[in-house]
Amino acid sequence: MSTDSRTAAKTADAPPAARPDVPARVGAPVTVLLWGGGLLLLLASVAVAVTIGPARISVPDVWSTVAAHLGFGASDLSPIRDGIIWNLRMPRTLLAAVCGAGLAVCGTVMQSLLRNPLADPFVLGVSSGASTGAVVVVVLGVGGGAVSLSAGAFVGALLSFALVLLLIHTLGGSTDRVVLSGVAAMQLFSALTSFVVMTSADAEQTRGVLFWLLGSLSGVGWSEVALCSAVLAVCLVVCLAHARTLDAFAFGQDAAAALGVNVARTRIVLLCTTALLTAALVSAAGAIGFVGLVLPHAARALTGSGHRRLLPVTALAGAIFLVWVDTLARTVLDPQEVPVGVVTALIGVPAFVLVLYRTRSTS
Questions:
Q1: CB atoms within 10 A of CB 162
Q2: What is the rounded distance in angstroms from the CA atom of residue 183 to the CA atom of residue 171?
Q3: Are 156 and 287 in contact (CB under 8 A)?
Q4: So what's the pLDDT on residue 359?
């Protein structure tokens, strides 16, 4: 039996506080409080964020409009104000919440699966593939107008992940090989994106593509919200079903195998799940960085490393975080809008440096 296996066997049944790499478990009442409080805070954040903007709208106006569109009574707001709430701000705010939750969950899974605290949802090169797909549609006009930017980005993301899977199959499935395969795909598709933009795009197209590449939630509708929400729900269920398996991966692949985990199958299932979710989110909102890198560490500080508690809390934290980041991005320089990815980077870089510092201190 390997060293990792012996370590796992000795510590698997030990109290959490006795494990050197797993914080003490959070009690059930505290967990319920975190989930319930997080959900209420998310609902309040969405309601308040929708009111922020040039048009004067109150929280009761938001609830009245939502209730009216859901068939509960009628709203006395004017059609213009109703449209601002229901057709413009509400889908954008809800998509921000969905993207924040999805990216945070993907980051949590990738960090546990690869045993790398610096892993994020884009480590598999999905965002670079999405960028290539987007510029191919926008700049080269592939599809003749029948293919949208989001559809092109989604196809590009899947092609990038398919290349990563091929490299993993060819080179071997160790965590180092997975990361290096993702880096290779990322560099390839980033180069293709730059080449297409430099050789074929005019100034207006370049500006539009750059804005999308930095992350943008402007112009989204209910169709994007519905699609991304459905993908998030399915992928979150899959990740929660593998929560105990992700706990086992904390001891390494050899230890997880000794504990009865089918390492190869589990890794493929979770890699495909996170890649699909990341592809859907990136195709709708662009590459919004640092959410999946930083939020999992903040959530672990509250819940510990048990994934049954960690995943829901991380999703709620990511949703609340990105709702307010998007609100800041669209209002801080009003009427000009700042790409969401710029704001998350400004906030995330100091947090990333802190993660690096803590990683060095504990290594």
A1: 13
A2: 14
A3: no
A4: 63
Task: State the Cα angle at 350 between 348 and 356, rounded to 5°.
Answer: 100
Are the C-beta atoms of residues 110 and 99 closer than 8 Å to each other? no
Residue 12 pLDDT: 39
Residue indicated by tokens 């589990």: 266
| pTM of the shown model | 0.88
3-state DSSP of the chain: CCHHHHHHHHHCCCCHHHCCCCCCCCCHHHHHHHHHHHHHHHHHHHHHHHHCCCCCCCHHHHHHHHHHHCCCCCCCCCHHHHHHHHHHHHHHHHHHHHHHHHHHHHHHHHHHHCCCCCCCHHHHCHHHHHHHHHHHHHCCCCCCCCCCHHHHHHHHHHHHHHHHHHHHHHHCCCHHHHHHHHHHHHHHHHHHHHHHHHHHCCHHHHHHHHHHHCCCCCCCCHHHHHHHHHHHHHHHHHHHHCHHHHHHHCCCHHHHHHCCCCHHHHHHHHHHHHHHHHHHHHHHHCCCCCHHHHHHHHHHHHHCCCHHHHHHHHHHHHHHHHHHHHHHHHHCCCCCCCCHHHHHHHHHHHHHHHHHHHHHHHC
* pLDDT score, position 362: 56
Considering just the CA atoms, what is the radius of gyration of the chain in Å?
Answer: 21
Q: What is the mean pLDDT of each run of 10 residues along the chain (363 residues)?
A: 42 37 55 87 96 90 92 86 94 97 96 89 92 90 80 94 92 83 93 90 80 87 95 96 90 83 90 95 92 91 89 96 95 89 90 75 55
Residue 240's nearest CA partner among 115, 105, 123, 121 is 105
Closest CA to 42 of 94, 108, 115, 119: 94
CA distances from 276 to 17, 63, 218, 228 (A): 35, 33, 22, 10
How long is the chain?
363
pLDDT of residue 361: 57
How many angstroms separate the first and last alpha carbons of the chain? Answer: 25
